[in-house]
Design brief:
The protein has 79 residues and is mainly alpha-helical. The protein is elongated, with a radius of gyration of 22 Å. The protein starts with a helix and ends in a 7-residue tail after the last helix. It has one domain. Helix 1 runs antiparallel to helix 2. The chain has three helices and no strands.
């Protein structure tokens, strides 16, 4: 996401000819988009995104269980 924001910012600066970006080549300005595509390809092929999604779901599930236990007055066992 950060690479997309950076790419959009550089693109706007290049188009409006603001600052040092006006002197850069379009290849440099558009390179964050290529890096974002490479990142997404790597994250999807290695299972990084799926793993993160599963961790979030497990955390939500555990939080929900703890919240329901507290509402019922059940104490959790601590070892």
């Amino acid at each position: 996401m950060y690479l997309l924001i950076l790419g959009l910012g550089l693109m706007v600066f290049k188009y409006l000819e603001i600052g040092f970006v006006a002197d850069l080549s379009w290849w440099w300005v558009l390179s964050p988009f290529a890096l974002a595509v490479a990142w997404w390809a790597w994250a999807d092929t290695t299972g990084y995104t799926k793993r993160r999604e599963m961790e979030k779901m497990d955390k939500k599930k555990q939080d929900r269980i703890e919240r329901h236990r507290d509402a019922l007055g059940i104490k959790t066992k601590r070892r």
